[in-house]
Design brief:
Blueprint lengths: L8 H16 L4 H8 L3 H8 L7 H10 L5 H6 L12 H9 L2 E6 L10 H9 L7 H13 L11 E7 H5 L5 H15 L4 E6 L13 E5 L5 E7 L2 E5 L2 H17 L3 H13 L2
Parallel strand pairs: 1-2, 2-3
Antiparallel strand pairs: 1-4, 4-5, 5-6
Helix pairs in contact: 2-3, 7-8, 10-12
Length: 270
C-alpha cells in the first residue's frame, strides 16, 4: 500500500489545481498560507490530497489566487465525503473484509454505535467540528454498519473494555439504547462480543486499540489509531505481535454469554 491508496480522486485533483494556480501566481506554499491565514503545513496537506479543505479555506484560496470560482467548483464533490481523507483506506478494507477482529479501549467501535452515540462522540471532538461536518461523519459511520448484514457474512469479533459500557456517553437514555444495540449485534451468528472486565488487573491491550482484517485474497492487515494519526500494519513480524495480543485479550475477556449478561445488567441499571 502506498501513501495515496484510498485517497479520493477529488482530493488529489483539487490539490493539483490549487498547486497549479499557486505556481501560476508565483507564490510559494508559505506565501499562500500567509495570505489566507492558514499554516504552511495546512496548504501542503491540501495540495498533497491528505486534507479535505473546508468551505472557508476554499473561499479564501479561490480569492487569493484569482481562481474566479474554479476551486469552489472543484471542491463541491469532496465536500460530500463522509469520512476523513486519512480514514478512506481503512473504510475500503473494512467493507471487503472476510474477517475482522477489534479491541476497543477508548470509545465503542464505530460499527456498533447508534446514531445518537456517534453524534455525541463526534460532537466532543477537539477542535470542534461544525454541525454539518458532524452529521456527515455520523452518516458515514452508520453506513459502515452494513458490514453486519453483508452477504457473504464476514466473521466479526470484538473485545470491549468494560469501562466503555459504564461511561454514559450522550446521557443515560442514549447509553441505554447503545447497550441494547450491542446486545442485538451480539446475537448475530457471525458476531462475537466479549467484555474485558475492570477486575482484570493486567492485560495485553495496554498499548491501545487495534483491528485485524483479512481481505478476500487471504491477506492479513492490521490497523491502529493514535492521537497523531493511523497506521496500517502489513509486515508479518508486526502482524504476529498484534495477533498475539488480540488472542491473549480474547482469553482474558469474559465469554460471550457472560459478556451479554453484563451488558444486559448495565442497561437495566440506566
Amino acid at each position: 500500500m502506498d501513501e495515496h491508496d484510498g485517497t479520493p480522486v477529488g482530493l488529489l485533483i483539487f490539490g493539483c489545481q490549487q498547486r497549479a494556480l499557486r505556481e501560476r501566481a508565483g507564490l510559494t506554499q508559505a506565501e499562500l498560507a500567509s495570505r489566507v491565514n492558514y499554516s504552511e503545513s495546512h496548504v501542503r496537506s491540501v495540495e498533497s490530497g491528505r486534507r479535505r479543505p473546508k468551505p472557508e479555506y476554499v473561499r479564501a484560496v479561490d480569492e487569493a489566487l484569482g481562481a474566479q470560482g474554479l476551486l469552489k467548483a472543484a471542491a463541491e464533490p469532496i465536500m460530500q465525503l463522509k469520512y476523513p481523507a486519512w480514514f478512506i483506506r481503512y473504510v475500503e478494507a473494512e467493507a471487503e473484509a472476510v474477517k475482522l477482529y477489534a479491541y476497543d479501549a477508548n470509545v465503542l467501535n464505530g460499527l456498533h454505535q447508534t446514531e445518537d452515540y456517534a453524534r455525541a462522540v463526534l460532537s466532543a471532538h477537539v477542535p470542534m467540528l461544525d454541525e454539518s461536518e458532524v452529521e456527515r461523519l455520523v452518516q458515514g459511520r452508520l453506513e459502515r454498519q452494513t458490514l453486519f448484514t453483508r452477504k457473504p457474512a464476514p466473521t466479526l469479533g470484538f473485545v470491549i473494555e468494560e469501562w466503555l459500557l459504564r461511561r454514559p456517553v450522550g446521557g443515560r437514555a442514549v447509553m441505554k439504547a447503545q447497550l441494547q444495540r450491542l446486545l442485538e449485534v451480539g446475537e448475530m451468528r457471525n458476531v462475537s462480543i466479549q467484555v474485558l472486565p475492570m477486575a482484570c488487573e493486567s492485560h495485553a491491550g495496554f498499548d491501545g486499540p487495534l483491528t485485524l482484517l483479512e481481505t478476500p485474497e487471504g491477506r492479513n492487515v492490521g490497523y491502529v489509531e493514535g492521537q497523531a494519526g493511523s497506521t496500517f500494519v502489513t509486515k508479518s513480524n508486526e502482524l504476529t505481535v498484534l495477533e498475539q495480543r488480540y488472542g491473549t485479550l480474547r482469553a482474558q475477556a469474559l465469554s460471550t454469554g457472560e459478556s451479554a449478561s453484563l451488558i444486559d445488567r448495565l442497561a437495566g441499571e440506566l
